Amino acid sequence: MKPLKVINIAWQALLKNKIRSLLTMLGIIIGVAAVIIMIAISAGTEATIQEEITGLGSNLIYVTPNMTKLTPGSMQSDGGLVYDDAFAIAEQISGVNGVVVEQSSSQTIKAGDTSLDGVTIMGTTADFPSVRDMEIVSGRYFDQKEVDRTTPIAILGSSLAEELFGDRDPFGETVTVAGNIRLTVVGVFEEKGMVGDVDYDSRLYTPITIVLDKLSDNKFARFKGDRVRTIYVEVDDSVGPDGERSLDDVIYQIELLLAKRHEVTLEEADFVITTQQDIISTKESTTAAFRSLLAWVAGVSLVVGGIGIMNIMLVSVTERTREIGIRQSVGATPNDIRWQFLTEALLLSLIGGLIGVAAGVIGSWLFGQASGMRTVIVATSVLLAFGSAATVGVFFGYYPANKASQLDPIDALRYE
Amino acid sequence: MKTSKPIIDGSDLKKIYQMGDFEVRALDGTSIQVNEGEFVAIMGPSGSGKSTLMNVLGCLMSPTSGQYILDGEDVSVLDKIELAQIRNRKLGFIFQSYNLLARTPALQNVILPLYYDRESSLTAEEQEEKAIKILEAVGLADRIYHEPQELSGGQQQRVSIARALVNDPVMVMADEPTGNLDSKSGAEIMDLLVSLNKEGVTIVMVTHDPAIAKYTDRTIHLLDGKVAQVVKNGKEHK
Ligand SMILES: Nc1ncnc2c1ncn2[C@@H]1O[C@H](COP(=O)(O)OP(=O)(O)OP(=O)(O)O)[C@@H](O)[C@H]1O
Ligand SMILES: [Mg+2]
Does the residue A56 lie in any domain? Predict the structure, then answer.
């Protein structure tokens, strides 16, 4: 028989049982839609993570205290990292563009009649805006001299500015922190949004010396210098695979410098150096796990869809035993019968696949709208889902089709 | 216009079903010859092997032993696929229960054998024309697009006769074609078969009804899977 005739016969058979055909396709429709939606969700999540990572600022090296290697006798959780280490790095390591130290404290702040609890007071240094990619929208930032002089000034995050002052320009206004520290507002940051789980817009930024001198509870520990939690080091363009020196080299130089300053060996370092790439890798391995979980779920639903097709095709073969007998009596060979039923299964899964693709695209969009999660339709996922549907159709359609082809003409004709 | 060219030449045909410890000899050494243009009736009590013989002669099953030559070709040695092709090109079937495809127009039912004819040189349009012509010839000019459930028993049997004829078979096999019909439409179907036979179609028909057997040239009586007697035109003929 010619292929077109086979397809036509199969198509007619499906039309004779529209509702059943549709119900049979349902499994495939759901499976294909699931694959597309799942991949759209994980692709969306990945894109969001990518943006978060670039949002952190590029070419960053993080130096943090090593909690497991506290120097004996030190009761402080901040380990061995001190404020002056940051400036040593900035001055002595080549390829460093800027260094930022942050030390935060959660405090109650007041401006006029408005009072807010638990606001993060971010003590930081002059390079902060460039290293962390933050732009001032009004007013100015502070410079290193103001940091050194413990100048009582503040820059507000965008949402904090609005909460405290509404539509008014906060420039020159006074904010009272912890009841007695009065800071003058000199600028407001642009809206940054959430980066990771950190809301940069609800914070108050001030010279780190304010936090260290006035808000730290560990003043007795200052004999060795002010301890800090993180030093951010931004490298310049000369660092990288194409530059004069490699990132690993810069990291090594920092390690040597800090080990010398702290009087420890590299093996016993009381600090840890992490790069942007380390963070990307961790996040990526998390999404990869997420993605493979989703792929499994989607794959299982496709297989369930295939089993649905096999089920219905088996019922259909039994129901249509007499039809098979009639076809055999007028000369249909086992191959003709096998192809007829295989084509039916294939048509079911392909049409189901097409509907599933449409449902998946619409579903991804609806899911994104409803959940607020980002979804990205990946073209290859559409092909993958559609291809799997066809494979499932052939795989699960073959057994019933073969069963039909093996029927004995006499038995089939006699079947009631 | 009857010639003596043999269409069917079956000798010592046996069909034995093994049922556990004992065997059922549905055909127990049947020999049968049918010549081109003949109209032969097969009679016999229930269980005597009439349907089994028809199924073997119709290439729907192979005999357990014996030789069967159909239209000059030894078909007792053919496999499933070859048998299907023989049925397609050389045989037409008329069943007691019509066996039409449900919810399928008469025209499509009649075309069905042509679907499976690999060697047919007819285009889809030519196939349709041919099927319509045959439907007209069996008196169904105004029922071409009717589906089986919209047709009377007699009309359904006419559709199945048209289907049996569409591939120009060397022989038409009819197993109790009037068995499900009242006497009036039964007689109409017999008239149709007789006129087809007059036009040269070779027919082998199973019937229970001696009155219907009278329409034929010869009646072969079966008993316990063997030919008991052959009656020609009402004359005894051992
Ligand atoms: N598949 C089978 N397995 C076992 N025995 C069978 C089978 N088919 C037929 N028989 C037996 O073979 C014998 C002949 O059966 P067959 O159907 O040919 O009879 P028949 O002459 O057509 O009868 P009826 O007039 O009732 O149609 C019967 O005894 C029947 O039970
Ligand atoms: Mg019978």
Answer: no
Instruction: Spell out which residues of chain A touch residue B88, defining contact as CB-CB under 8 Å.
Output: 330-331
Q: Which of A1, A5, A413 sits opposite B99 (nearest CB)?
A: A413
**B113 Cβ under 8 Å from any chain A Cβ:** yes
CATH code, domain with B139 = 3.40.50.300
Q: How many domains does chain A have?
A: 2
| Interface check B140 vs A, CB under 8 A | no
Alpha helices in A263-333 (DSSP H): 276-319, 321-329
Range of the domain at B210: 37-62+77-232
Q: Is residue A192 part of a domain?
A: yes
Residue from the list A322, A329, A335 with its beta carbon closest to the beta carbon of B87: A329
Ligand 1 atom closest to the CA of B53, numbered from 1: 18
User: Residues lining ligand 1, judged by CB closer than 6 Å?
Assistant: B 17, 19, 24, 26, 44, 46-52
- Gyration radius of chain B over CA positions: 18
Query: Within a domain: residue A71?
Result: yes
Local confidence pLDDT in tens for the 416 residues of chain A:
678 888 988 898 899 889 989 988 998 899 899 889 888 988 888 887 777 666 665 578 888 887 665 555 444 444 578 888 888 888 888 888 888 888 888 899 998 888 899 899 998 888 888 887 788 988 999 998 998 888 999 999 999 999 888 888 889 999 999 888 899 999 999 988 776 667 889 999 999 888 888 887 655 444 446 777 788 888 887 877 777 888 888 889 999 998 888 888 888 888 888 887 777 778 778 778 887 888 788 888 888 888 988 999 999 999 999 999 999 999 999 999 999 999 999 999 999 999 999 999 999 999 999 988 888 888 888 898 888 888 988 999 999 999 999 999 999 999 87
Q: Identify whether residues A37 and A140 lie together within a single domain.
A: no
Strand ranges across the sheet with B73-74:
B22-35, B6-19, B65-70, B73-74
Last residue of a domain, one of A224, A241, A269: A269
CA of B16 to the centre of ligand 1 (A): 10
What residues form DSSP beta bridges with B69?
Answer: B9, B74
Residue A197's CB: how many other CB atoms inside 10 A?
Answer: 6
Supply φ then ψ for residue A14, to 5 degrees: -70, -40
Mutate to test the interface with A, among B107, B109, B116 (most CBs of A within 10 A): B116
Distance from CA of A33 to the nearest CA of B (A): 34
| Residue B169 CA, ligand 2 centroid: distance in Å | 22
Mutate to test the interface with A, among B61, B96, B115, B165 (most CBs of A within 10 A): B115
What domain range includes position A153? 67-269
What's this model's pTM, rounded to 2 decimal places? 0.73
Provide ipTM, 2 decimals: 0.94
Residue B182 lies in a domain: yes
